[in-house]
Amino acid sequence: MIRELGPPDLCHIVKIHSSNRSEPDIGSYHHVLGVDTSSSATLAAYINSLQYSLNDTPGWFGSNNSWKITSGTYCSYNAFSNVDLRVQVKIPGGVDAYVVTAQGERKEATEQMWKECYISAMLRAILYADPTTYNVTGLRRVTPVSNPREETRFMEAVVEQFWHGWALGSNAETQ
Predict the structure, then answer these.
(1) What is the pLDDT of residues 42-94, one digit of tens each?
(2) How confident is the model at residue 98 (pLDDT cuts 50, 70, 90)?
(3) What is the DSSP string of the chain?
(4) Which residues make Cβ contacts (< 8 Å) with residue 127, sequence separation at least 6?
(5) How far, in Å, CA of 39 to CA of 157, rounded?
(6) Could you give the CA distance from residue 150 to residue 155 in angstroms, rounded to a whole number?
(7) Is the dihedral of CA 149, 150, 151, 156 positive or negative?
(8) pLDDT (tens digit, 9 = 90+) per residue, 135-152?
(9) Phi and psi dihedrals of 41, rounded to 5?
């Protein structure tokens, strides 16, 4: 049994009302399962995609598209290294990716940390896939593996990381 894969990813976005610039910026949070966390580019793409989903999802502040996203921060827990990987996106332009340790130190994300974060996020999406047994307010589920190419990519990453699986906290008898 896996002891701790961490919570679902957390996304914070800042929106402004495009028709009334005198209103203050509004921030909102939502949890996410299933987003590809293998690079800052994929996470920036997710935050950018939210602008288009404002029109699709009435729960975002009504059915009219009078809101515009100006920035966002995506946080994902890397269960292997016990760090948070964060990507801050400013719209338009600007992406900043870094790691925050348990002690609150800010460090640069390595390629290995990105791989570990990707596997951690995918395992969480699989573990928490059933909405009847795992339901969190404000949780957005994205299909983690939607085609055979993504499945192959995920399996190759898991095979590569297999011998580091002990870091996820399985007991000695299960290992």
Answers:
(1) 999 999 888 877 666 555 555 556 778 899 999 999 988 889 999 999 988 89
(2) very high
(3) ------PPEEEEEEEEETT-TTSPPEEEEEEEES---SSHHHHHHHHHHHHHHHHH-GGGTSSS--EEEEEEEEEEEETTTTEEEEEEEESSS-EEEEEE-TT--EEPPPHHHHHHHHHHHHHHHHHT--TTT---TTEEE--S--SHHHHHHHHHHHHHHGGGGGGG---TTT-
(4) 2, 5, 134
(5) 14
(6) 9
(7) positive
(8) 788 888 888 777 888 777
(9) -65, -40
* Single-letter residue type at 58: P
- HSE (side-chain half, CA atoms, 13 Å) at 4: 10
Predicted structure pTM score: 0.81
Residue whose structure tokens are 């910026």 = 25
Tell me which residue of 60, 62, 65, 84 sits closest to 73, measured CA to CA: 84
Tell me the pLDDT of the chain averaged across its residues: 82
